[in-house]
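Hi all, long-time lurker, first post. I run a small reading group and we've been trying to get comfortable going from sequence to structure in the token notation. Rather than ask abstract questions, I figured I'd post a concrete chain and ask someone more experienced to write out its structure so we can walk through it together at our next meeting. Sequence below, copied exactly:
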Amino acid sequence: MKELILDNRGVFSVFFMMIISLMILILISDVEIPRDKHGSDIDLQKAIEQAAYAAANGVDTTSQANNTPYVDPVKAHAYFRHFLAKNLLLDDVTLEPLGNSGLKSAPQYELLIVNGNNPYVSKGYFYDSQASEGYVDVDIPITLGIDEDGIDLSGAGYRQTTIKSPSCVTHIKAELKEVIAENGNREAIRWAVGRLVTH
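-- Answer (accepted) --
Happy to help. Here is the structure in token form:
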């Protein structure tokens, strides 16, 4: 062993292996961290899209029986929360993340149900993660604005969507878990629309 330490070839070999190990670690970090962030963003987007679609399928039974389906706000909210919890691995009641969820804390959300004028359910209804809810006076068609703060009924925001049929519009803010070390805020903001399509 003493000869290996005194031999320049041995020192170079050990030094070379240390450099190679460090380069491999840097390469893995450089590839895995963006891939994980991108993957968790995709998971969040898919989860909110599926939750919005499920909410839009919370159809009022009387309106469906009369062949003019509209979204029941109570059903829509329940379906939205259920699918959000299922897809993001959250507690069904509190929406707090379970052990293997990709979120750090319960997501902040807004859910707007837009029905327009009809004889069965409210024209519009709003829910959020702070337990706020209430009637919203909206007609169809309506152009809604969406930005980092949420859904805007006036159409202001850096994104717009035009609602032409009964729909559920949702906006979510979620803090994502860090992969290796905490290095800043990893807040993701996503939105989706689930439309009730009739033929």
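A couple of things your group might point at:
Residues 28-195 form one domain.
The first helix runs from residue 2 to 6.
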